[in-house]
Amino acid sequence: MKPFARATARLKRKLGSRIVRTDAAARRAASFDSSKILFSADAVIGPRREADIGVVLELANKFRVPVTTRGRGTTLTGAAAPVRGGWVLDTLALNKIKIDDEAGMAHVQCGAKVADIQRAAEAKGWFYPPDPSSKEYCTIGGNIACNAGGMHGGKYGVTRDFVVALRGFLPTGEAVEWGTATKKFSAGFNMRDLWIGSEGMLGVVTGAVLKLIPQPAARWTLLTSFRDEAAALRAALVLFRARVQPAICEFLDRESVRCAERATLRPGSGQVQEIFPGQSGRPVILLELAGSKSEVREQSAALLAWAKANAAGHRVARTRAEAEQLWAVRRKCSGAMFALGDAKLNEDVVLPMRSYVKFAQFLARLKRESGLPVPTFGHLADGNLHVNIMYHRADPPETRAAEKAVKLLMATVVALGGAISGEHGIGLAKTPFLRLQHSPAQVRAMRAVKQALDPRGILNPGKMFEVFRVWQHPRMDVHLPWDH
Fold it and tell me: Which residues, 6+ apart, have CB-to-CB distance to 174 below 8 Å?
């Protein structure tokens, strides 16, 4: 019996065949993530207790079995795909949530859904702000692995800003805790933050303590439209320079708006639902204020004055239900882009605010020169824009144009002082561009950390440091629940 087969057989004896599955259906379901590139998992392990993960890793380390940890696989970069086969560690059964009402903290297991954490916190009068668009599906473990953000990032921050402590296992199977459930901790190296954003390459997170903040007493939503993308981004700079701090500030370019409108039909009519009647097809900025009633009242007056001076049109949501309709349209735009092509290179780049207008001008050139649709939307308050290069995978000229476009996009982002990823991480998709962002010395330092913590290289191998060109690999024709 080969070493890998021996390891799997031994694991089945220790944990049971209900936890260690090797049937074809289980293996296929765990063989791809939202990047939709298929790899072959050899076994899927669904631990029921955190201690089970220590058993898994101890054996994996001994027999050098690759281990890929996953929640629901909502990641877009291939970070949860088992590129080297081996064992997939499915953490969904570890989903407990407990709110410490007095301390304002949430004690959660890695498989808990982000939206469930938010609802549990809200029931106690607390608020957990990080909110990826897939929050009804994605797990907190996955959010920690890629340091996820979301629409609230500009005012409140990203996942890292809310993680108080972590627990989990080293690749050897040894249990560790990084930090405690206290508001201060300065005892040794900050290994907690090293694990956050490490994409499951340095250890396996099984639980976390999250900081919560008081639930905002008031919210106020404003939709604004602009003549073109450059005008919208110039106006955003005016807003931020005035020190107005919206809780959410979302930008949709013209292509994103048209896609979202086509995907949203008026109830009972079958007609396209315009995001902004009378301003259809124009880029928009959708803003929300959140805070105390007096803070929202003061800032809403400032926002209205800004809109009148800078926007082509504006509309205030009169009710919370009307505001939610606007946000629902915003959440549709990513999935709706497949009307423009059956494949996309989805790049979550980050730009310094000073480069907003230059970047808008670059995107206009990129669309003209590539001949491809490049719908762009994102979080203006923290500079995190989602640039989507759309193409048809069966069309070789379009595929080549997409490859050229994404390379030019990444080089331009770095030249403008930006980042190749703001919340998706590197995974497989961003590996060709890691060295655009980091010097050889920086990459060596990261590899040294990986070698120190995972000397046998079992955790999520084949990611980050080894170049993988996603545009050269066929994508699965599969619809996932979060593809809305």
Answer: 54
Does residue 79 sit in the same domain as residue 121? no
Model-level pTM? Answer: 0.94
Residue 332, token pair as written in the block: 């549709």
Domain that holds residue 47: 3-92+457-472
**Low-confidence winner among 46-60, 96-110, 262-276, 453-467 (lowest mean pLDDT):** 262-276
Q: For 130-138, which contacts have Cβ atoms below 8 Å and span 24 or more sequence positions?
A: 130/156, 130/157, 130/158, 130/159, 130/162, 132/74, 132/423, 133/331, 133/334, 133/482, 134/74, 134/482, 136/482, 137/72, 137/74, 137/113, 137/481, 137/482, 138/71, 138/72, 138/74, 138/113, 138/114, 138/482
Question: In this predicted structure, what is the pLDDT of residue 478?
Answer: 86
Q: Are residues 392 and 379 in the same domain?
A: yes
- Residue 274 CA: distances (Å) to CA of 152, 224, 334: 25, 13, 17
What total of structural domains would you count in the chain?
Answer: 3
CA 362 to CA 413: how far, in whole Å? 10
CA separation, residue 40 to residues 28, 29, 181, 445 (Å): 7, 10, 39, 31
- Indicate whether 425 belongs to any domain: no
Tell me the pLDDT tens digit for each residue of 241-295.
999 899 999 999 999 998 888 877 655 555 566 777 767 779 999 999 999 999 9
Residue whose token pair is 């193409």: 391
Contact 421, 29 (CB under 8 A): no
Q: Give the span between the Cα atoms of 198 and 231, in whole angstroms.
A: 37
357-376: average pLDDT: 96
Please tell me whether residues 199 and 238 are part of one structural domain. Answer: no
Q: What is the pLDDT of residue 271?
A: 58
Bridge partner residues of 388 (DSSP):
346
Question: What whole-number distance in Å separates Cα of residue 430 and Cα of residue 76?
Answer: 10
Locate 53 and state its tokens.
Answer: 């993960």
Query: Quick one: 72 and 114 in the same domain?
Result: no
> Helix 229-241 vs helix 356-370: angle between axes, to the nearest 10 degrees?
160
Q: Are residues 71 and 178 in the same domain?
A: no
CB-side exposure of 372: number of CA atoms within 13 Å? 32
More confident site: 192 or 336: 192
- 289 & 303 share domain: yes
Q: Give the residue from 162, 179, 214 where a domain finishes.
A: 214
Question: Among residues of the chain, what percentage have pLDDT more than 90?
Answer: 84
Nearest one of 58, 57, 153, 159 to 108, comparing CA atoms: 159
CA distance 13 to 269: 59
Residues 182 and 222 in one domain: no
Asked if residue 189 and residue 105 are part of one domain, the reply reads yes
Which of 302, 286, 294 lies closest to 248, judged by CA? Answer: 286
